[in-house]
Amino acid sequence: IKKGDIVAIYLPMIPEAFFSIFACSKIGAVHTTIFSGFSGKALHSRLRNSNAKMLITSNKMHRHSDDINLKSQWIDAIKNTNVSKVIVVGDDGEGEKEDDCNNKIINYKEFVKEAKSNGKHCDTEIMDSEDPLFILYTSGTTGEPKGTIQVHGGFTVVAAQQTAFLIDM
């Protein structure tokens, strides 16, 4: 993954979701967070529309005292997309394996462990204020969801405005 590549994040509200967002921002990749409550069909449409190369997800999540099988959603959703690598957060994946779509599925802990052991380091990419930071999708209630591209400079300005507002309160 390099500057300009799209990374889809289909995770519940866990620390790795934020780590993924920050990592994408650091290397200049464009991220799109996809609500983990969405169906496989909704995930698939966003993966295809965004042209994502990588998916960061988990096999399951816990919500309202229920375990929800996310893998049943994403395993079919990645078919016929440009996703070539799936990073799975959680203890339920064992190493690398190939699925029937030739998508490489890698356990997150092994991915991080391998990067550390190889001494891999990613430099912070220098970005222009108009370079894309993330893709935010509309709800799709009146038709197909539309991806809106948010840029580094615009996001920074809005974040600063919201912070100033909170400080003034």
Task: Report the mean per-residue pLDDT as an integer.
Answer: 88
Radius of gyration: 17 Å
Identify the overall geometry.
globular
Largest sheet properties: 6 strands, mixed
Beta-strand proportion? 25-35%
The helix/strand order is EHEHEEEHEEEHEEH
Summarize the structure.
The chain is an alpha/beta fold and 169 residues long.
How does this structure look, described?
The mean pLDDT is about 90. The strands form 3 sheets. Strands 2-1-3-6-8-7 form a 6-stranded mixed beta sheet, sandwiched between helices. Strands 4-5 form a two-stranded antiparallel sheet. It has a two-stranded antiparallel sheet with strand order 9-10. About 35% of the residues lie in helices and about 25% in strands. α2 (about 40-50) crosses α3 (about 70-75). It is an alpha/beta fold and about 170 residues long. It is built from 5 helices and 10 strands; from the N terminus they run βαβαβββαβββαββα. The protein starts with 5 loop residues before the first strand and ends with a helix.
